[in-house]
Fold this protein.
Amino acid sequence: MRACVTRVAGAVGAFVVMGCLVIAPARAEAAVGDPSANAASVGDARAVATSTPAPRPAPEPAPAQAAEPAIAAHPDGASPQAAMRAFLTACRQGDFAEASRYLDLHAIAPEERAAKGADLAWRLKSVLDRRAWVDVDALSAAPEGDREDGLPPNVEHVASIEVAGRTTPIALVRAPASPGRPAWQIASTTLTALEPLLAEIPWVEEHLPSFLTRDRFAEITPWQWIALPGLVMIATALGTLLTRLLRGPVRRLATWIWSDAGELVDGTRAPLRVLASVGLFLGLLPSLLLSVPAHAIVRKLGLAGLAVGFIWLGARGLDELGRRTIVRLTGEGRLDAAGLVRPASRVAKLALALVVLVVLAQNFGLDVTGVIAGLGVGGLAVALAAQKTVENLFGGVTLVADRPVQVGDFCRFGDRVGTIEEIGLRSTRIRTLDRTLVTVPNSEFSSLQLENYAARDRIWLKLVLGLRYETTADQLRGVLAALRQMLLDHPRVDDDPARVRFLDYGAYSLDVEIFAYVLTNQFDEYLEVREQVLLSIMDIVAEHGTGFAFPSQTIYTTRDGGIDPGRAAATEPGVRIEARGA
């Protein structure tokens, strides 16, 4: 219970601090109600003043000084801008009697104007706060008003409000010159059209003390400042309760879909609680009846909370999925793929955060098109600068996907051999036979011709025996038959093929080839079988009375007979005669 109270108090404190920091400069927001309502129809505008053309659509709102306490009020309302500033300033200061001077009250009996004017000004300010926001800076500062807006000279369009499904314009009219009367006032026809809204003032504003409903700080009344932390506490409590009630059914449903999903649900409990609390807060927010800019600011804070919750939920989910994937891959012996899970999880978290932040920025009204285009160009530049790194990254992905070698495999790469110790995102580490550690970039390693000795199902046994030339044919036949039988009888030598053949007459031996496969993929076991076969060969050769040849040469010596003198004397005369004729 104490931990729950601590979390709620921390959430309230954080929200209040954020509200003071963000809502205080709410003057920069200046939202103008529903944009579609700002474009008042011609028929609605003609209701403002008799025989007046339709008001032009309200201009695109500029940032308004919504909470500016020191607005320069013109005492006589000499221009539409000065009159609206004076009305809003008086309302923010709680002087609704002064604010009533800027209302056209000629439709009210003179003896009732003082009593009803202040109440009407307060109700109008409440309606404007909840339904629209006046961009004072967009109004004309000229005494004659805006002569190019397509409206009569005595009418100025301020904003639009939807009443009973119909867009109603709020207009200022220029009053006849009169001592103590502002030159511009809010039209009486506007007040008449807004009567349904003016009569529906929220219950709390009518029944709470005036000091809680009339005064304002950052366009938020005292009772709203008090209710705001209370709403945070209620939403947090309801969110916590909701997640506890739904955790069991959701866990059973997730386990029914995927047997390992129960731990995933347990690991994401905290972010789900945050999302539920923020969602409930946003759902209950309209009950505070905040002004348009304050509601927009608080709603954006709530959206930011949702973004944080989604990023947190995604990070927790990816962590849990990564952990389960590592356990499964490790159990399957795929250590290389398991080593890439954590880096891939980090990349996925970053991508999720970027997507959520882009969506959040769009909801805040920011134009992210230029940012995305800039990121694309920047990403291209980074990719060109980090070309080798990208090649190594894709090389690592190729090694994991194709799996020519895995962690722990003994292989030949290029002209070297070693055991794979790690396949990372950038490089592969191999332990060589002399126990050194070789690091090869993945782009280079994946392009090498890799010979994976660990993938062998059998090991080839090939020997060439050299028997002495003194071996007779019958002895050789006996040796061949005995060797074949020895291979067939050995339990760890494959029978097909197990071949022994007289191969050739060598330079100094009779060559016999032994060709077979040892039924193992472990090199130590192969060496053991090879040793047994070699010893058996020595016994067979000795039993048949022959031996192994070794490199040797046979030299034959004789006496030189010299030149025959008789033949030489008989040949020389004939040679001389032939030489003269030539």
User: Anything to note?
Assistant: The radius of gyration is 48 Å. The chain has a mean pLDDT of 76. The first strand starts at residue 155 and ends at 163. The chain is about 55% helix and 10% strand.
